[in-house]
Design goal:
The protein has 156 residues and is mainly β. 10% of the residues lie in helices and 58% in strands. The protein is globular, with a radius of gyration of 16 Å.
């Protein structure tokens, strides 16, 4: 229920504010794709693209009666190329952090596709090879693997 309220609120905010402001920042949700590797520390993250920089920030949180888990990603998108029509490809270096149950810090390289069916709405899919650089012992460092997500962002 809470997810629906958040999604409807973001959609309404996008519809109302798009004509009022130039599109320079974005906010949305990213959902981990577990068979490919998922997201660090959470199955879903808030995805934010701040204005005037080629950085994308992800933050997720899992709260439960007996569990607290948090994950963040920070990606610098250095290459963006148009494939066709409204579909693009992107790649760049990044970093991730997962804690506290499994403390893990590492580097990642997100490679993704994004599409803009409208000027204010973006959908994306990315796979990020990752390299764990520090772990509290649950992962043997260095550890190579993958992270992946699919999601959407509203541009304001």
């Amino acid at each position: 229920m809470v997810k629906r309220i958040v999604l409807i609120s973001l959609f309404a905010l996008g519809l109302v504010s798009t004509p009022l402001f130039s599109q320079s920042w974005a906010a949305g949700l990213a959902f981990g794709i577990d068979p490919i590797g998922g997201l660090p520390g959470a199955s879903a993250m808030v995805s934010i693209k701040p204005p005037q920089v080629s950085v994308t920030i992800g933050a997720g949180l899992v709260l439960g009666a007996e569990r607290f888990q948090m994950g963040t990603t920070l990606d610098w998108i250095v290459v963006r190329e148009n494939l066709f029509s409204f579909v693009n490809v992107y790649v760049g270096p990044g970093a991730y952090l997962a804690l506290p149950d499994q403390v893990e810090v590492g580097a990642r390289v997100p490679v993704g596709l994004n599409a803009f069916p409208t000027d204010w709405f973006e959908i994306f899919f990315e796979v990020a090879p990752r390299l764990a650089l520090f772990s509290d012992g649950t992962v043997e460092v260095p550890d190579f693997g993958f992270q992946s997500s699919a999601g959407f962002r509203f541009w304001f």
